[in-house]
Amino acid sequence: VKSVCESATMEVQYTNSWASMDLEKSTAEALIADGCVLISQHADTVGAATACEAAGVPIVGYNVSMIATAPNTALTSASINWGPYYTYAVKAVMDGEKIDTDWCKGYSEGADCITELNKNTIAEGTEEKVAEVEQGIKDGTIHVFDTSKFTVDGSSLEDLIESNEDYKKYADYVSDGYYHESEAASAPSFDIKIDGIE
User: Fold this and answer.
1) pLDDT, average across residues 142-151
2) Domains in the chain and their CATH numbers?
């Protein structure tokens, strides 16, 4: 978002549930009432998309396309493609090999993706920019957790690792200018509160 709107900030609310339609809807409504102009969800119902469609606020959904629920406001959805993992796991079983408990794959292997872009809601040039960014993520020229793009309490993550005992645990994750999320372990490890996110 900051690549197109430097002043953007983020407000995060937790529902503490993967599938509570009413709670997801009311949480999205509260964020909209608080002035949020774009909603992104990481939960499994259409509750947030329903709230966004009613309020005319764009939404990035999760797991499945939200276009049918929010035809005038859904942009796309972050999604996981389990196909590469299932192929890997079945092949491991067939070959008598142990299934890795820390299987870490992403965009370049097709394990992460976004659903189709809603041509009724996206701005001109979005398809081309998305294709450019996807290619950059795949070929390693763009890193989602680029440490030059954020600060923590006004400092770089690298400086905090060097100077603050609380951040030393991240030393193995940060190198080459980015945080290596999901490269060494499948469980998310990035739990840092970066500046601009409340």
Assistant:
1) 92
2) 1-81+109-142 (3.40.50.2300), 143-198 (no CATH)
